[in-house]
Amino acid sequence: MGPLESGDPERIGRYRLIGRLGAGGMGQVFFGRSAGGRPVAIKRIHPHMATDASFRERFAREVTAARQVSGAFTAPVIDADPDGEVPWLVTSYVPSLPLDEAVRAYGGLPEHTLRVLATGLAEALSEIHRVGLIHRDLKPGNVLLAEDGPRVIDFGIARASSGTAATQSIIGTPGFMSPEQIQGESMGPSSDMFAYGAVIVYAAAGTGPFGEGAMPTMVMRVMQNEPDISAVPPSLRNLVAACLSKAPQRRPGPGALLDALGDVPIGESWLPPDIMRGVRDQVGKVNAALSGAPTTDPANAATNAPGATSVLGGAAAGAAAG
User: Catalytic residue positions?
Assistant: First the structure.
C-alpha cells in the first residue's frame, strides 16, 4: 500500500481513503475504511471512461449482478455509485497475500494447501456463476490467500469494459485465457474453468501450464500445445487436465469439481508457515493503518483512538487492487 498522492480525494462516498493499493485498466484502487471502521478497497473508475455512456450502462449492470454474489470465498461488492460523476465501487478488504506474490516468494504450494485452494476457488466460481456472471480474468493475482482460506476478487466487472477501445487489451491474461476467449468467441462459465485449471497449475509449479512468454507466444501455446501439469499432485491431476481441455463442453463445472474433491478441512494451518507469517504480518499492518487513520467525524473518534484495533478476525472478507 502506497501513500495518497496530491490530488487524491480524502473521501469517496462515505469512505475515508488511507492509501493507494494499485491501478488497473479500469481505474485507481484505494485502501480505506468505512464509517464503522471496517477495511475496504475502493475502485474509482478512470474519468475518461466515465464519459462513455455505453460503459456506464455496462458498469451499472455488472455492479448490480456482482452485489448478488456472496459466499465464503469471494470478496463481495458492498457499495457502489455507478451514476456518480466518476463511478466507483467498494469491496470488503482482507489482509492477505496474492497467490502470485506468495508463489514467487516461497515456491509452489504443498498438496493439502492446493486441495483447499482448489475447493475454495470452485466454491467461489459456483457462486459467481450462480448470478449469471463470468469472471473473465481469473489469474493468480486475483486470488488472495487469507488466514481462513482463499478469496476470489475482481469478478464480473471486466465485462463492463468490453468494447471500450482504451481497455480492450486488458481483458484477460496470457496463459490463463481459454482458447475461445483468445479467439474472441462467445464465452460461457466454462471459460472460467480453463483459467481455474491454469491457476491450480501455477500454484503447484510456480508457472502456468503453458510457461511464460510474450502474448503471441502464449496465444500459440494455448491454442496448439498440451498443458504441462506434471507438477500437480496425482490426486488433482485428472481434474486439472479436464479443466484445461481445449473444448469448452468437456470441462467440468464447479459443482462437479466440488463433488470430486469432497470435504476438505481448512484448519489454522492450511498455508505453509512462511506464507501464514506473511499473511499475519498483513493483518498487523492493516490494523495499524486503520487505527491511525485520521478522521473529522466525532462519531468515529473511539475507533481512531490510540491503541484501538479493528475487528479483523479470520472470517473477514476482502479485496485488493486489480
Answer: 137
